[in-house]
């Protein structure tokens, strides 16, 4: 679960210098390959994309689009079709129950996929079942609803590659534990 969380946290945060370093060093590609290998899935290949192109794609897919937001990066939106609903409240209670709190500089909702990824990664070492519950209960539904939309709308192929892998991994995880 830790790789799932780390990859989600890195991918769904607005692209900046940290993502650029991860791409230049190859560490994100290595993480994707390790995760795919863990689930006997074909290793994905991230396309080479400039930071400015990633930023443009991120905004268009997840932040602001005059034609409507293709994939709002909030778990509650995938689960309920709206923000700040019962799913977000349940997630906040889950965070509190497991001793998680947002960083002081976090300026988004708690069900944002980057925050969810961080929570999954943080819990994976000490509370793996809680991390799994977050991944399957919140991240997987978002991927089921939006991975194909991202694949269709992502002009860079970057977000589509990551979403497809995460969706396949969580489907395999769900099947393996069922």
Structure, described:
- The chain has 178 residues and is mostly helical.
- The protein contains 9 helices and no strands.
- Helix content is 69%, strand content 0%.
- Helix 1 packs antiparallel against helix 7.
- The two termini are 16 Å apart.
**CATH H level: which superfamily?**
TorD-like
Summed over residues and divided by their number, the pLDDT gives a mean of 93
Write down the secondary-structure element order.
HHHHHHHHH
Any guess at the CATH architecture? Orthogonal Bundle
Q: Provide the structure class.
A: mainly alpha
* Global shape: globular
Number of helices: 9
Q: Are there runs of 5+ residues with pLDDT below 50, and where?
A: none
The proportion of residues in beta strands is under 5%
CATH classification, class level: Mainly Alpha
Query: What name does CATH use for the topology?
Result: TorD-like
Residues in helix, %: 55-70%
Main β-sheet, in a few words? none
Taken together, the total number of domains comes to 1
Distance between the termini: 16 Å
């Amino acid at each position: 679960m830790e790789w799932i969380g780390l990859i989600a946290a890195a991918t769904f945060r607005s692209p900046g210098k940290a993502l650029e370093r991860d791409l230049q060093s190859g560490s994100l590609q290595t993480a994707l390959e390790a995760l795919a290998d863990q689930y006997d899935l074909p290793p994905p290949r991230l396309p080479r994309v400039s930071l400015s192109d990633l930023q443009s794609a991120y905004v268009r897919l997840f932040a602001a689009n005059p034609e409507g937001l293709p994939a709002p990066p909030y778990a509650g939106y995938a689960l309920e079709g709206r923000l700040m609903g019962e799913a977000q409240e349940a997630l906040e209670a889950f965070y509190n129950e497991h001793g998680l709190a947002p960083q002081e500089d976090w300026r988004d909702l708690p069900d944002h996929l980057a925050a969810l990824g961080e929570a999954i990664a943080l819990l994976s070492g000490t509370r793996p079942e809680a991390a799994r519950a977050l991944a399957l209960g919140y991240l997987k539904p978002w991927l089921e609803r939006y991975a194909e939309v991202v694949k269709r709308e992502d002009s860079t192929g970057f977000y589509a590659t990551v979403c497809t892998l995460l969706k396949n991994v969580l489907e395999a995880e769900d099947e393996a534990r069922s």
